From TrEMBL:
InterPro entries, per database record: ARMT-1-like_metal-bd_sf (IPR036075), ARMT1-like_metal-bd (IPR002791), Type_II_PanK (IPR004567)
Domain of life where this protein originates: Eukaryota
Signal sequence coordinates: none
Protein name from the UniProt record: Uncharacterized protein At2g17340-like isoform X2
GO biological process: coenzyme A biosynthetic process
One GO molecular-function entry: ATP binding
PANTHER family on file: 4'-PHOSPHOPANTETHEINE PHOSPHATASE, PANTOTHENATE KINASE
Protein's gene: LOC111468225
Length: 270
């Protein structure tokens, strides 16, 4: 709750002073770079025939993409100085086991049965959404799952907004409305009603609340939404909290390392 209040006060002060989307130019540049790499990332994922190994590669892609976070002072400094390489980040992740590592349990569930509807609370622009989340969402679509991507209503740091995500997908889809050969009829983009890098799940939009009534998996991605505010949140359906630890105090609280990974999966017994 303290993290939520601090984030709320920060955004309120910035907007009162006229700073509504201070990272707009950076987001646009990173989105363009990531869009140019999307097809190659998909090709590399699709080339992995083993389902379990392909899933792990997709998960590592989410972590690698989640590095692009200008809400972390250390990462913002590295980004401004050296830039960031998505493929290099995939290779340089903290090795497993991660500080919270339920990936093997998730793999087992993945191999047994597909979820019918998945809600994903997305995080950052650039490589995070385009090279991390969207390839994962595309894999779910291939398995016959309906995927709902919930994005911020208003800008906050470099988080992707609802309107930006619609534009990104319009650039990635082909003339048939497909994402590299996968039909997107079951892919929905929804305004989460949120305007912060963290989220209070009691304050989501009416549309998202309605769409969530029959979800059987909820995914909270990113340190703000998945770790700092909802790591121990309990759901009536399966849930996954996934994100990279980018603040030292959070790493210390979890007993892990800076840039460690959190993959916390909770399955609800039927």
């Amino acid at each position: 709750m303290e993290d939520l209040l601090i984030a709320l006060l920060r955004e309120q002060v910035l907007r009162e002073l006229g700073f509504r989307d201070i990272f707009k130019r950076v987001k646009d540049e990173e989105n363009a770079k990531a869009i140019s790499l999307f097809a190659e990332v998909i090709r590399l994922n699709d080339a992995i025939e083993d389902d379990s190994k392909r899933l792990e590669n997709l998960v590592k892609g989410i972590f690698a993409g989640n590095i692009f976070d200008l809400g972390s002072a250390q990462l913002a400094e590295v980004f401004s100085r050296d830039g960031m390489s998505f493929l290099a980040s995939c290779q340089n992740l903290v090795p497993r086991p991660w500080v919270i590592d339920d990936l093997d349990t998730f793999k087992l569930r993945w191999s047994k049965k597909s979820w019918k509807k998945v809600i994903i609370f997305v995080d950052n622009s650039g490589a995070d959404i385009i090279l991390g989340i969207l390839p994962f969402a595309r894999e779910l679509l291939r398995r016959g799952t309906q995927v709902v991507l919930a994005a911020n209503d208003l800008p906050s740091i470099n988080d992707v907004t609802y309107h930006e995500l619609i534009e990104i997908l319009s650039q990635l889809k082909d003339d048939r409305g497909e994402l590299v050969g996968v039909n997107t009829a079951n892919l929905l983009i929804v305004n989460s009603g949120n305007d912060l890098p963290v989220i209070d799940l009691t304050q989501v939009s009416q549309e998202l609340s309605y769409l969530s009534t029959d979800a059987d998996l909820v995914i909270l991605e990113g340190m703000g939404r998945g770790i700092e505010t909802n790591l121990y949140a309990r759901f009536k359906c399966d849930s996954l909290k996934i994100g990279m630890v980018k603040h030292l105090e959070v790493a210390q609280f979890l007993g892990g390392r800076l840039y460690d990974c959190v993959f916390k999966y909770n399955e609800v017994s039927s």
